[in-house]
Design goal:
- The protein is α+β, with helices and mostly antiparallel strands.
- Helix content is about 35%, strand content about 15%.
């Protein structure tokens, strides 16, 4: 499928007109501001500077916890664990121990790069028909959300424990102390948490969540209210005293299974055996050269490492970097590369424990060269078809991740680094609260249909399988192999585009962290070309439409947290679209 081809004098005249228009607009865009300053939730962020270390998280409480751990002699892994437990408490809509995550770690002394997979798994009782109705059609996503069938075996605690066992310095118990203190003493409800609690239509249905987050009249706790979570404090004490294994066995595990079983209307097959059997994985990071840098990301079951590398590899074969940062041609090339990369993502990527994922074939130079030739400078391809890889035939996946996600970036004084992205899937996950934390709804990241047109889908539900993800913790190294940047984002399947755009801003246009994150978002997930509502200039929309793009303006509430190495210090910035915090020392 695509835009209908044109030939003859009309095509030549149209191309000439577009080229002249784009040249004029590019010259203007070099000098013009990147777009309106006002956007929902927009918060001006100063660029933080740290001569020794840098922490960027989604909430100031978490940033403070990480810096506290670093001041005690902890390393980047220790600080990340402390920050993540605090985020569970103060940002419950986005992540927590009821969900999962992916973590990239760089050990500055050994130069070793580790990729930890804490993605949730489907219960042993799960079947490919899990999300089909009695008529054989896929059920609505909203019907699956707040039910037992959406909940995967949580992996975050096990992943953090594995990373701590291999690279941590301080005792596990000490790392939980900041979250435990806040759970008992309370924290101040932020505007973002209040708003999401107020507009959520399902969370009040859980008795424990209703008592914790809402007032007697049903309204959310107001901004500035002090919120303590004594149930979560008890959970943290148990994890502190008995270790991470307490989450997967004993009281906590029984409470998880009972809470899922008590939710009516859907399969509740997650068992004590599923929890006891969960194991995190250490995998090999996906690394690829971009310009003179080495960009490293997560391998499958995250799709991001491969898809970001593909997108950048395609851009490298176009005149993208020679364009102004917000010119129509820059957005055109980026969107076209995104179409091709997302098309391959949908067909080939899934849990490598169940599917032979052709990572090397997707990133091979001849393959990328052939794919890049599909990008035309004067017109959009509309919708891209996936590439053909010998011996691999699969139907497209229909999974769409929701943005209940957080990311943190940390560099410590020794140069060790962590990029950690964690999630419970949609905001507040499954809306089922257990022992003060919310359970995920990550199994909705599977394809609801097991097959299409007679072809089994790579991302179909299977027992013990990990659903495809877009989480994209990323580390960048310069040509001498020195750590250069640490980043990642929230934002569902848009994470891939947002991370790739940020990388291009930093590596191609040499922007500082704050300037890079202030750019309006743009890109395509092999559908319309998406521009950030309220941020992208109106003229850009018309210029792209002249190139055949179907443009949609959308709210893009990312959560990019970025650290870049400066000449004599680490520079950090938090996404101005959220309530993030960047601080160095």
């Amino acid at each position: 499928m695509g835009v209908k081809r044109e030939t003859g004098s009309w095509m030549a005249a149209r191309f000439f007109f577009c080229s002249v228009f784009l040249w004029i607009w590019a010259a203007i865009a070099q000098e013009a501001p990147d777009g309106p300053e006002a956007a929902s939730g927009w918060q001006e962020q100063a660029q933080a500077v740290g001569r020794h270390a840098m922490v960027v998280t989604a909430n100031a409480y978490a940033t403070d916890a990480a810096l506290e751990i670093l001041a005690l002699g902890g390393n980047a892994i220790d600080a990340a664990i402390a920050a993540q437990f605090v985020l569970n408490l103060v940002e419950p809509q986005s992540s927590g121990i009821g969900g999962g995550g992916f973590l990239l770690h760089f050990d500055a002394r050994s130069r070793r790069l580790s990729a930890f997979d804490g993605r949730e798994t489907a219960p042993a009782g799960a079947r490919p028909e899990r999300f089909l109705g009695t008529d054989g059609a896929a059920i609505d996503w909203s019907d699956a959300l707040a039910s037992g069938r959406a909940i995967g075996v949580p992996g975050l605690v096990a992943m953090l424990a594995l990373a701590h066992e291999r690279h941590g310095h301080l005792r596990w118990q000490r790392l939980l102390r900041p979250a435990l203190h806040l759970a008992e003493a309370g924290f101040v409800v932020s505007p973002r948490l209040h708003h999401l609690l107020q507009v959520d239509g399902s969370l009040r249905g859980d008795e424990q969540a209703r008592r914790l987050y809402y007032q007697e009249d049903g309204s959310a706790l107001p901004v500035g209210a002090r919120l303590s979570n004594p149930r979560f404090a008890l959970t943290l004490r148990q994890l502190s005293e008995q270790g991470p294994r307490a989450f997967y066995q004993g009281d906590i595990a029984h409470a998880i299974v009972a809470a899922i079983a008590a939710r009516p209307g859907a399969p509740a097959d997650l068992s004590m055996g599923d929890l006891a059997a969960y194991r995190p994985r250490e995998r090999q990071a996906v690394c690829r050269r971009y310009r003179s840098y080495r960009v490293c990301g997560m391998p499958p079951p995250s799709s991001a490492g491969v898809t970001v590398a593909q997108l950048l590899g395609l851009l490298e074969r176009t005149p993208f970097a020679r364009q102004a940062s917000l010119s129509p041609l820059a957005v055109h090339y980026f969107a076209e590369a995104g179409r091709l990369a997302y098309a391959d993502r949908g067909r080939y990527l899934a849990d490598p424990g169940f599917v032979d994922v052709p990572v090397q074939a997707l990133l091979a130079a001849p393959y990328l060269e052939a794919r890049s030739r599909l990008i035309e400078p004067g017109r959009s391809m509309g919708v891209a078809l996936p590439g053909e890889i010998s011996g691999v035939k699969r139907g497209d996946s229909a999974a769409q991740a929701r943005p209940g996600t957080t990311h943190l970036s940390i560099v410590d004084a020794q140069g060790n680094a962590v990029a950690l992205t964690a999630s419970i899937e949609s905001a507040f996950g499954s809306r089922i609260m257990v022992r003060g934390f919310l359970l995920n709804n990550q199994l909705t990241d599977f394809s609801f249909l097991p097959s299409r047109d007679g072809q089994l889908l790579a991302n179909r539900v299977e027992p013990g399988k990990r659903p495809l993800s877009s989480m994209a913790p990323t580390l960048v190294f310069d040509r001498q192999g020195k750590l250069y940047a640490v980043l990642g984002s929230a934002g569902g399947t848009r994470i891939i585009n947002d991370v790739a755009q940020t990388l291009s801003a930093v590596l191609d246009w040499r922007m500082g962290p704050a300037a890079a994150l202030a750019l309006p978002h743009y890109g395509s997930r092999n559908g319309p070309t998406e521009l950030e509502r309220g941020r992208a200039p109106a003229e850009l929309t018309e210029a792209l439409r002249a190139l055949g793009h179907r443009v949609e303006l959308q709210t893009m509430n990312s959560g990019i947290h970025l650290i870049v190495r400066g000449e004599s210090a680490w520079l950090g910035a938090a996404d101005p679209r959220r309530e993030g915090s960047a601080r160095g020392n």
